[in-house]
Amino acid sequence: MRQVLGLALLGAAVVFPAQADQTLRVVYPPNKHETIAEQIFLIGTAPLQGDVSVNGRVISRSPAGHFAPSFPLQLGVNTFTLRYGEQTVTVQVNRTPTAPAPPLGLTFAKGSLTPTTNITRLPGEQICFGAIAPPGAKVSVKIANQTIPLIAQTQTVELPPNAAVLTQTNQPATVSAAGRYQGCTIAAKPGQLGKPQFQLSKNGATARQHGPGNVEILTPAALSVAQVTAEQGVARTGPSTDYSRLTPLPRGTQATVTGSEGDWLRLDYGGWLDKKETRTITGAVPPKSLIRSIRSRQIPGWTEVIFPLQGPVPVKVNQGDGSFTLTLYNTTAQT
């Protein structure tokens, strides 16, 4: 039976088969890989006899011959040449900027207008807009007969990716925000505000462009109710898989939708859920439940606590050393 060694990094499993004819291999990153990270791991393996070098520098390896050194990345294409004996492997990694560069002409940078997708919010919530345009321009956005000036930003703080903890480079960086414009407003009344129209003026010339996302203000008395249809709804702290996970929501859980962003729904307790894991219940009232007649019993290995509810509600679990906290949202105790 062949033996297999697995190396886990950043949630992905990398497997090195133990073969007698094994030569220099790079399993990550693939050639022509693109990233916004400031560092990259080169993960691979080679036979123990001989050295492996990267751009002329010999790297350390594990007793089994595997390696995973990290290297800083410059903006643009970074070339890494790995050598083992007569064998050479070249990997190119393209580090792209986190935001588009300011355009040269009288136009907005491609993909820079925000919101980038349809959004819904409650009355009284702040709605923010952003754009990247030539420095020194006058930029504004018009929506629902309101004109909001977008103010030029001088600096912005960029956070490192989560992988930066592995290289001990997880420090925020203050960078120039030349060409970035931002502004916010508050809509007091429900209704369809439509797509914002961005305008920039410079040197006596003016350009206009509609944003990609539609803005709607919800009616508080007519909010929809979402029911979880997945076995375990993956709730998150924000509207994408980039955000942290919260306690999963069991199938059948109901909650009022207080906002949305693209395919993500914001539920009344603060969690965000992918729309495909839910269904909308027509004519439903905001879900609430009483709690009473709570009881507990000892079972070998744990304590079981039973909370009778009128319906499934969002939950949050926090467990620490010697403590366990369960939060039941949209409930009222009658104990």
From TrEMBL:
Top-rank lineage group of the source organism: Bacteria
Pfam family, one: SH3_3
Domain SH3b: from-to ranges: 223-281
Signal recorded as keyword: yes
ATP-binding is among the record's keywords: no
Key words of the record: Signal
Signal peptide range in chain numbering: 1-20
InterPro entries hit by this protein: SH3-like_bac-type
Coiled coil (residue ranges): none
Protein name: N-acetylmuramoyl-L-alanine amidase
Organism of origin: uncultured Leptolyngbya sp
Record lineage: Bacteria, Bacillati, Cyanobacteriota, Cyanophyceae, Leptolyngbyales
